[in-house]
Design the sequence.
């Protein structure tokens, strides 16, 4: 095992490739970790937010990845990893909410180095084997697809619901697919004709934000805009007693009038990480299509460019190729 590796490191607002980053040392004991040799990773909106200062993270970026486990029961297998590293001992963990553990670290987001590197250390409990039928490209999407499935797990929607998804980016696309597959009548509202076309090709109704009349007729509105104004827009689409689901985090503070929420008796709820098993099953069954979202790939040595490319271009998912063997 080498002592040093390549890694895309964030410090302050500086993102750089380091070729002499120490290979992480997996923890031993009750929270035992496994070293994973990363094959491929995906750039996410959260990575862009982190660079803007969200969470004040310093370390190796990247939390959507596929790799090969180097030890433990899954040794030699392709794996994906849940990103919340919880203590499983505190009251929150024992009450069944480990993703809310106050002692948690989060891969590539909070206090734990991420996957834009040759190796990442992941708690054994967090690993899931990638089924043979799933290509590595598709498996990179397990983490964001799981986040989309969290909406179903939170039991916020019913099959007969009309749902509006605001935002035609990566997460909006996946949330729309999950809701449409569940049985909802889905409209995606976005700003980018090319991204909306991908959804129409999947049989999902779309509209351009400046052309759609935001009648208050939707049972559920999912905000995937990644924008501070997303909640305000959602209030124009949701019907009285409807539900607004906030899926994206925005760094900084937002101000808005809360009166419409009270007047229309709207439920506003946050939604974050979700069940990997549901995501793997949905991808394996072909119910969720992710290949149309891949819009480019960069080698790890050009990982910084991959991140900048994602930030500056109207692209969907950029992959980072790490191990070519
Ligand atoms: Zn992400
Ligand atoms: Zn805990």
Sequence:
């Amino acid at each position: 095992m080498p002592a040093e590796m390549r890694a895309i490191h964030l410090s302050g607002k500086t993102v750089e490739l380091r070729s002499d980053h120490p290979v992480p040392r997996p923890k031993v004991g009750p929270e035992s970790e496994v070293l994973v040799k990363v094959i491929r990773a995906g750039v996410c909106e959260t990575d862009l937010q982190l660079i803007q200062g969200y969470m004040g993270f310093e370390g190796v970026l990247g939390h959507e990845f596929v790799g090969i486990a180097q030890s433990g029961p899954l040794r030699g297998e392709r794996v994906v990893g849940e990103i919340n590293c919880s203590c499983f001992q505190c009251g929150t963990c024992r009450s069944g909410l480990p993703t809310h553990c106050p002692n948690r670290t989060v891969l590539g987001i909070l206090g734990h180095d991420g996957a834009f590197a040759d190796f990442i250390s992941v708690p054994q409990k967090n690993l899931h084997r990638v089924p043979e039928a799933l290509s590595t490209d598709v498996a990179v999407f397990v983490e964001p697809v799981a986040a989309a499935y969290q909406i179903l797990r939170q039991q916020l929607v019913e099959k007969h619901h009309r749902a509006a998804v605001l935002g035609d980016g990566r997460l909006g696309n996946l949330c729309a697919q999950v809701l449409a597959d569940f049985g909802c009548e889905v409209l995606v509202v976005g700003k980018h004709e090319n991204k909306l076309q991908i959804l129409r090709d999947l049989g999902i109704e779309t509209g351009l934000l400046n052309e759609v009349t935001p009648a208050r007729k939707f049972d559920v509105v999912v905000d995937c805009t990644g924008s501070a104004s997303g909640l305000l827009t959602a209030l124009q689409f949701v019907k009285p007693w409807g539900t607004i689901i906030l899926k994206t985090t925005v760094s900084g503070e937002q101000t808005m009038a809360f009166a419409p929420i009270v007047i229309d008796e709207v439920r506003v709820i946050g939604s974050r990480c979700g069940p990997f098993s549901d995501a793997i099953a949905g991808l394996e069954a072909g119910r969720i299509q992710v290949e149309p979202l891949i819009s480019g790939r960069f080698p790890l040595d050009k990982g910084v460019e991959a991140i900048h490319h994602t930030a500056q271009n109207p692209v969907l998912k950029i992959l980072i190729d790490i191990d070519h063997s």
Remarks:
- The chain has a mean pLDDT of 94.
